[in-house]
Every structure is written in structure tokens, then in C-alpha cells.
Write a structure and sequence with these properties.
The protein has about 190 residues and is mainly β. The protein has a domain of about 140 residues: Roll (Pnp Oxidase, Chain A). It is about 10% helix and about 40% strand. It contains three helices and 14 strands. The strands form four sheets. Strands 5-4-8-11-12-7-6 form a seven-stranded antiparallel beta sheet. A three-stranded antiparallel beta sheet has the order 3-13-14, with no helix packed on it. The N and C termini lie far apart (about 70 Å).
Length: about 190
């Protein structure tokens, strides 16, 4: 801003006033960048997250028992009580879980590693020698589990090569003295190494 000189005033003086600088935000990304890692590298990195181990169970429409080992279990909400787990689209149990209305998530105790292996195996009778009780909705509750959640299949989301199942918990039980079975780096543990 400048003040000019008139015939009787002092010489002109000027003062610079900086205009505000406005930085526009970058436009939002419309998709993720291409991964810089391989599938085995991704799997190895995911394996560094220590988890519990579950067996998710259901009774199919034809009465057949369905069950599989999963470590993708997580809590979602306390009110309403919601949990989630995910299942590969390649799983032979996908139809039973997608079409059913109820399932149970059984968190395994430290002494149930053999059950985890049995329900993760292919080409075997996964229910051979398994002791269980029938939940209110018909889903099997594994005897000796650290905790069991009887769930109504509230919603499903297809993402990538898996479907995410959100279950609304209708009943749950737990054994306060149970030590959990843990999974880390591709191995089972009854306690994590230091």
C-alpha cells in the first residue's frame, strides 16, 4: 500500500502487504497404489500379529456339522454385541456359512492344539472324537473351549478373496481360568516367547 506525494506533503512511502497463501489439498486418491510386496511377504508380515485360535462351527440346512479353524476373529461392538471373522471364498464351508443364519465361534484353550489342527485339515472327518454341546441355534459348542459365542449372522461383506462375517452375539460363555491357544509366525503357542 502506498501513499503518494502531493504538492505539499512528504515523499511517498510504501508498505508491502502480503497476500495470504492458500495451499489446496491434494485431490483424494481413488484407489490404492500397487503393492510393492509379494503374497508370501504379506502373509509373513501378517503372521507377526499374534492371535488367538478359534473353531467356527455351524449346522448346515441338511443337518450336517460344519467347522473350521480360524484366527481372523475380532470384536466389533459392545452394544450391540458384535464380533467378526473372515472366510476364504475357496473354502468348502463357504456355502454353509453364507446360507445359514447362525454359527458359533469357539475360542480354543491352550490344551486344544490338536483340535485346531484337526479342524484345519482337509480330507478328514473333522468331527471325529470331538465332544460338543448343541447351542440354542443348533451350532456346536466345543467342549473345553476358553470361550464360545453363539451368533446370529447379521451381515456379510465380500472383500478381495474373503467374505467378512459380522455376528450378533446371542449368548456367550467363558472359563475364567483357561489359558488361550495362541498363533504367531505360523506356529502355535501356549504362551508367547519373549
Amino acid at each position: 500500500m502506498c501513499r503518494g506525494r502531493d504538492n505539499q506533503g512528504p515523499p511517498a512511502t510504501c508498505r508491502l502487504v502480503a497476500a495470504p497463501i492458500v495451499i489446496a489439498p491434494a485431490p483424494p486418491a481413488t484407489q490404492a497404489r500397487k503393492p510393492t510386496f509379494s503374497t508370501p511377504e504379506f502373509r509373513s508380515a501378517l503372521g507377526m500379529f499374534a492371535t488367538g485360535v478359534t473353531i467356527v462351527t455351524a449346522r448346515a440346512a441338511d443337518g450336517q456339522l460344519v467347522g473350521l479353524t480360524a484366527n481372523s476373529f475380532n470384536s466389533v461392538s459392545l452394544a450391540p454385541p458384535l464380533v467378526l471373522w473372515s472366510l476364504s471364498h475357496a473354502s468348502s464351508a463357504m456355502a454353509a456359512f453364507s446360507q445359514g443364519t447362525h454359527y458359533a465361534v469357539n475360542i480354543l484353550a491352550a490344551d486344544q492344539q490338536a483340535l485346531a489342527m484337526q479342524f484345519a485339515s482337509r480330507g478328514v472327518d473333522r468331527w471325529a472324537g470331538v465332544t460338543f454341546a448343541e447351542g440354542a441355534s443348533g451350532a456346536p459348542l466345543i467342549a473345553g473351549a476358553a470361550a464360545s459365542f453363539e451368533c446370529f449372522s447379521r451381515s456379510r461383506y465380500v472383500e478381495g478373496d474373503h467374505t467378512i462375517f459380522i455376528g450378533e452375539v446371542e449368548a456367550c460363555t467363558h472359563r475364567a481360568d483357561a489359558r488361550p491357544l495362541l498363533y504367531h509366525g505360523g506356529r502355535f503357542y501356549t504362551e508367547l516367547p519373549l
